[in-house]
């Protein structure tokens, strides 16, 4: 969905009050007017003091936030909307500690808010498939570790599959997925989920990546480290940017939540040419999202 460019002052003017946030949520939930989720009747009235709508036919009361990303929240919607703006407007992202200070909530509350927003980001990007010339490689993400094996097979490292569209002088869209290990099964699942069939794909000659050839026009090549930037230039730039992002803002992340951070990185990367529209685009994604139940790792 196309968004509109919004400055901090624009955001404050439109969503600086609870009424403005509620109006935006109602417009997204019921663009043609209220419809009862229980009986489907298209007439009801607002109980403004409680934040509910009551159906004129069955008299079922529905919370404005029920079944949405903000389901059962005890926070004012203004804090949610500001969290969305802060996440989208800073290309480096925002940590839970910083967000907690910015909107005056506890660290655990800020962390849960950010997790839900990142999950919504990942769901929105899951609707798209990469096309044309695509570079694929794997990366190892994890904290610094002295001693022991380096590279594939190293301890405390998490494998991530990365695919990016190569558009000659610039990169296109990107997809990243955390995997238990890089093998034929995980590669097959990744390709099926993120690529359209019969695309032109480049990769190194890792045996597990041979699985790509089953559905794509795949060209593997043995690539020495000093030549990787020639054969797979954009995917290595993206991996380098990801590591900078994770270390710069979050100082590393645990493997249990890594995919959520990958969601955030990809969402922002895929919309980098429309930076001014990012807050309104992310707001649209969050407003239209269903309830999220967080898993505890």
Please provide a written account of the structure:
The chain has 297 residues and is α/β, with parallel strands linked by helices. It has a domain at 133-254: Nucleotidyltransferase, domain 5, CATH 3.30.420. It has ten helices and eight strands. A five-stranded mixed beta sheet has the order 6-5-4-7-8, sandwiched between helices. The protein has a three-stranded antiparallel beta sheet with strand order 1-2-3, with no helix packed on it. Strand 5 (158-167) and strand 6 (170-179) form a beta hairpin. Helix 3 crosses helix 5 (107-125), helix 3 packs across helix 10 (278-287) and helix 5 crosses helix 9 (258-270).
Keywords:
single chain, 297 residues, alpha/beta, Nucleotidyltransferase, domain 5, five-stranded mixed β-sheet, three-stranded antiparallel β-sheet
Number of strands: 8
- Measured distance between first and last alpha carbons: 32 Å
Look at the helices and sheets and give the structural class. Answer: alpha/beta
Give the count of helical stretches.
10
Q: What Rg do the Cα atoms give?
A: 22 Å
Please describe the topology of this protein:
Layout: H1 8-15, H2 18-29, E1 44-47, E2 52-55, E3 61-63, H3 77-89, H4 96-103, H5 107-125, E4 133-141, E5 158-167, E6 170-179, H6 184-194, E7 200-204, E8 217-221, H7 228-231, H8 233-250, H9 258-270, H10 278-287
Parallel strand pairs: 4-7, 7-8
Antiparallel strand pairs: 1-2, 2-3, 4-5, 5-6
